[in-house]
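Notes from the 1:1 (GR / supervisor)

We went over the backlog. Supervisor wanted to see one worked example end to end before approving the batch request, so GR pasted a single chain during the call. The sequence is below; no edits were made to it. Supervisor asked that the structure be written out right there so they could see what the output format looks like.
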Amino acid sequence: MESIQSIKQRFELIGNDVKLNRALEKAIQVAPTDISVLVTGESGVGKEAIPKIIHSLSHRKHAKYIAVNCGAIPEGTIDSELFGHEKGAFTGATQTRSGYFEVADGGTIFLDEVGELPLTTQVRLLRVLENGEFLKVGSSQVQKTNVRIVAATNINMFEAIKKEKFREDLYYRLSTVEINIPPLRERREDIHLLFRKFASDFGQKYKMPTIRLDDQAVQLLQKYRWPGNIRQLRNIAEQISVLEEHRTVSAGTLNSYLPNASNTNLPAVVEQSKKDSDFSNEREILYKVLFDMKGDLNDLKKLTLELLKNNDTEKVQEENENLIRKIYGNKEEEVTPQEDSVTEILHLPEPVVESPQVVAEPQEDRYHFAEEIEEEETLSLQEKEIELIKKSLERNRGKRKAAASELGISERTLYRKIKQYDL
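Structure output shown during the call:
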């Protein structure tokens, strides 16, 4: 078994970070077997080196090694690329074609960005992992293949599984052994070593003296978070090598090449999963407001009908105390004008009805007539209320607290009405 140091020299890997050494150690240990391996890590950390190491140290090293970027192949053709197709299987299939799994029989396939595979392709890949069988597109003949699969991804696989974008059974088949490559910001001691290596390579490539960093520039280099990892570091080294006339680079010069240089290696709040109860977009808020409005309207209809039937406001108020509190707020708000409006509604003058001797209308018709009037009155009052709220907000320059005080209602009530009327 080769040592970690010899592997680094052979594949030009630079760094002495403990996490990096552990990843290389796992790759060396798993290489002689046929176990499926999943390489994880952020974009640009150098995940493609691991499958090369595994293939070169395995008994398949004399067979083919094929690297496939799953995110770069269109969804409509990826099945054909991986498994091949028969002549006439689809428009443009003028001849039979062998896929990567057929060509790499006996060798190793590296599936980069495996998290981007469509679900239908994931099913086909699962079958290959389970029993080595696959079908060409447009064919009914089962074919066998003996390949080792090494996959890599930069996405959170558990989040993808939760969102049903990746099959859970396929994940566990791929990740028999999982190797994680640490991001560059967690390898601070390796950053300057990598920069010096890149600077030397580009100096030879462009036939220029190798650039150097002063002490302050080295400190800035190590403090930067490097969101693009090694790929970004390499690009920065190439830019400075080509553009700078002075071969000694100061911190100020380096700073001009680093986007968002204030983004140092300090603790930061990153993406957090939102709770199901949180509103993540305006559509959910709108649905919530609409459901609340519908419920309030039904409650008001019920309360109005009770008033019309009984003509006894005190009795109705006592029997429907919970309903009134639900519509107009808790007891703590009884002192606010909002509750005064409840009292006014409950003490509306009784509808004038002619004596039965003069008009002998059925009881239902009288209630129906009253409900129609109530709907017209409600619409009119709503328009006036919207107009008052708009004027108050304009006078107070959008300050809700001042507007609520002017209108004589609580700030919470004003907020609910703003949402209700979409102001």
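Supervisor's comment: The CA atoms of residues 212 and 248 lie 5 Å apart.
Batch request approved.
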